[in-house]
Amino acid sequence: MTETLPSVDWYQDQVVFLTGATGNLGGCLLYKLALKLPTKKIYVLCRGSIRQTIEKWEASMPEEAPDILDSGKIHFVIGDITLCQFGLKALDLETLQKEVSVVIHSAATIAIFQDLAVAVRNHCHPVQTLMELLETFDRLETFVYISSMSVNTFLPAGVVTEKIYPVTNDEVLAETHVASTLATGQSSYPGAFPVSYAEAKYLSERVVLESKPSFSVLIVRPSSIGPAIQDPYPFYGPHDSIPGHSFLHLLLENPNYRTYNGTKRFSQNMIMDEIPVDIAANVCLLHIASGTKGIIHAGCQLHVSLTTSELATICEQYTPKEVLKQIAKVNFDQNGALAKRVGEAFESSHRDWTFDCSRSLHLKGMEGVIGLCFPNHDGNQFLQERVRRQVRRIVRKINEQE
């Protein structure tokens, strides 16, 4: 059976409400919606002030931000996802209720080691609020929740498909777990999740689905998000928002590793699942236009799969030996404890998972403004340059400490 590929023309009459537009993936989605698609209008939720939001875009997309603002599509609404009804003014809420056809909730706190109660409050409460609020939206067709593949890190090694896996055989409603965690500060699944972020995202997914909404729901689970191949520009992505970069730095700052040989403590055949941010954004936008419902994965099956061993070999090949010698001698006091914690969490919890992306494989060869195929992209050259950029950052950090 041949599946019909979505058309960008679908966006022509769509009015989108976007949260998290200053984040890594949120910023890329904004760029696509404003400059690459015929979107009618984009309402952007701003926490704080409009000026602060614009300044963040100017920092992350300095050349593209003026064009985004000049597109005539951007409309700002002040609010806060942690507040009742997102802290929206009555007039703004009324406008959203009348006009919005697609909601993309990409706002998230990506701190993985937050206190569990704080993580649950930051992730689950906004989703609970939003699911109630969206029932009052007259034109809403689709709600998109940006989740994470980490929701399944309690599973044993093997293939992980695009569905909800219960942690226990006698699961109660997610809202019960949320209330219990907020009241006690304790997990309902002790020892199941390696980090609080994963547990909070897992509960948030279940809150969305258990609310039984009257509109279509699409849950997108990106893997670890990497820098952009092309959009908004090559290597786009704030350094602190690229987990792979943060992990590399912390790994080399951990005295138990300090060299790429240290990665031999990990399974060498384990797939380091990562996806460029613009491919993750395109997966999301293609499935919205396709009318997809349920859960989809956005992972390395749609790009390039590398094992721990392969990635370590590439990184070592493009890191000068003198830099590795420098790293071994430096005392990274500032991040020492965090580096140790990250290394221990990764070593103890990561397994040989294969995150299945079957629902998107028919889109893999699609080119164009929201395609998943980049014909002129040289993956090896891209990775080499990426390693070199991170090495330069580490060298600068070493020089600052000397």
TrEMBL record:
> Is Disulfide bond among the key words of this record?
no
Query: E.C. number, please?
Result: 1.2.1.84
Q: Name one Pfam family in it.
A: NAD_binding_4
Domain Thioester reductase (TE): where? 18-283
Q: What general EC class does the enzyme of this chain belong to? A: oxidoreductase
- Show the InterPro entries listed in the entry: FAR, FAR_NAD-bd, NAD(P)-bd_dom_sf
UniProt GO cellular component terms: peroxisome
* PANTHER family for the chain: FATTY ACYL-COA REDUCTASE CG8306-RELATED, MALE STERILITY PROTEIN 2-RELATED
| Annotated protein name in UniProt | Fatty acyl-CoA reductase
